[in-house]
Specification:
Layout: H1 6-28, E1 38-42, E2 46-47, H2 50-53, E3 59-63, E4 68-71, E5 80-85, E6 94-97, E7 103-104, E8 119-121, E9 130-138, E10 141-148, E11 151-153
Parallel strand pairs: 1-3, 2-4, 3-5, 4-6, 7-10
Antiparallel strand pairs: 5-9, 6-8, 8-11, 9-10
Length: 155
């Protein structure tokens, strides 16, 4: 069989290797950003602490309670928090609030952040295991290193 164009090559690979690729993808599953860390489960509005809630101590924050706000501590360079909304789909609104004098360096919309503006995992679009991974990257701000789900900026 002659394979002489990019389209023909891709089609030939799909026919000959498609099953292997499907099996590989099915066997790998999804490895979440918080794999290997211990969950610290919260049920109330909480101000997070590096000593108990951060990646530095091998932890991530797990929350499934509706309409809760988690407040970040003042930025510490290199500090890292992973916050997971583990409620059932469309089960919990979750708000992440920076310290009053801090911001998200780049907000959800992709613009420069604003002091004391939250990011919100909306209840209507929330899916189980939506998460955000935040890293202290500048004295006044948090970097959103990874995110899953639909999040919006506080108005």
């Amino acid at each position: 069989m002659s394979v002489n164009s990019r389209g023909n090559i891709k089609n030939a690979l799909r026919r000959s290797q498609g099953r292997y690729m499907d099996d590989l993808c099915d066997s790998q599953g999804v490895v979440p950003a918080f794999s290997g860390l211990s969950a610290v489960t919260l049920t109330a509005d909480t101000t997070l602490a590096i000593a108990t809630h951060s990646v530095q101590v091998g932890a991530y924050v797990n929350i499934a309670t509706d309409a809760k706000t988690l407040t970040l501590p003042a930025v510490v360079l290199g500090a890292s928090f992973i916050i997971v909304n583990s409620a059932a789909d469309a089960g919990a609104l979750l708000t992440i609030s920076p310290n009053a004098s801090d911001l998200f360096l780049v907000d959800i919309a992709g613009a420069a952040g604003t002091d004391n503006k939250d990011i919100i995992n909306t209840k209507a679009t929330q899916a189980k295991y939506d998460f955000v991974h935040l890293i202290g990257m500048a004295a006044a701000g948090w970097h959103i290193a990874d995110i899953r789900g639909t999040w919006v900026d506080q108005a």
